Amino acid sequence: MKTAVILAGGKGTRLAEVRSDVPKPMMPVLGKPLLAYQIDLLKAHGFTTVWLIVNHMYEHIESYFSDGKDFGVDIKYYVEEKPLGTVGGVKAIEAQLKEPFLVLYGDVLMDMDLSRLVAFHQNKNADATLVVHPNDHPYDSDLLAVDNEGRVTAFYAKPHPEGLRYRNLVNAAAYVFDPVVLEHLEPGVKADFGKDIFPTLHSKLNVFAYNTPEYLKDMGTPDRLEKVEEALKSGKVAARNLNNKQRCVFLDRDGVINIDTDLIDRPEDLELYPYAASSIRRLNKMGFLVVVVTNQSVIARGLCTMATLDEIHKKMETELGQDGAFVEAIYYCPHHPHSGYEGEIKEFKVECSCRKPKPGMLLEAADRFNIDLTQSYLVGDSPRDIEAGANAGVETIRVKTGHGLKPHTTVPKHYVEDLVSAVDLIENQFLKA
Questions:
Q1: pLDDT by residue (tens digit) across 124-140?
Q2: Are the C-beta atoms of residues 330 and 256 closer than 8 Å to each other?
Q3: Which of 161, 171, 358, 409 has its CA 20 to 30 A from that of 348?
Q4: Domains of the chain, first to last
């Protein structure tokens, strides 16, 4: 993939108190225009042509970048006579977009392994791939629903329907499009991808979501600009790039995050511990990935369907998100090796590589997110959890909630009261590192 389109027509009205003499994409971030960060990233990943959709005070952009020769790319401009939202300018250059292309927003600071994104798009044979990530305010963000393959099944533009349960998959404003997407855009009409296109596009084309923990943040307000600069200075932005090894805390679900009532098969039976969200939020703020790994034999036993389990997890993520906490991903094993149960689902009654104490779920997550297992933890309540963590090579912490008080010969590295204590231990070690 060689072509990118950057939507660079923003006025930056809310940033006027910082600077009003440049358009938003040219706002300095630690002394460097935001747009320059994006173009450097594109060049580093082999993009050769960058289209800039410009409008407000575009002369500043053209004066700085010119034809892009000094930046190692070929920069072309499309000047919108009047703003047409996020869609209009892309549709206007349709004749120039004959191959798959990347779309970025000019007010987002990002540091991503774009090669991984492109490979995902190609491997899925997608028509459109939307970059998504969890955040600490999903309740007022554009959200997606996906199936087990990552295919988008619904798009919920904010404000959401009342009572919506959701996965914390937030539209991160970066897209890969095949040219076929352009056929579904109307020329000369002001429209927005999130509000007007994505809510129905998945019913017409193969649309997938690429979930990443990498850094993508808009800096459209003075407060956000300050946070972006702090993240750059601290090294957080670069560290999150999946070219770099990540540190992770793997969490078992039942007995760690929520009360274990044994074989939970309905959303209404899932009750989070009162400290679950605040504990996970602390891990989020420390920069750890948080990944749930849970055995869910309710599927193999025929007690609930995959769709019901998804609703259970939506409830969990919704309640965590309401308190500003999020998990990067949820891995579950639907299998159970022993047969002979009434109502069981034969196809899931198998020996597998994912059911704890086997480390399959941890290893799959490690591959997906480039996790350094030697710098990571598993928090669980059962011997199976501890054995899985040991088999994967992570530091193990057993809690006394759930099944944590049942005696067993499997010895964890640490044995603590609950998730709060586990996070205390992790934080103490993290601060010493």
A1: 999 999 999 999 999 99
A2: no
A3: 409
A4: 3-237 (3.90.550.10), 245-432 (3.40.50.1000)
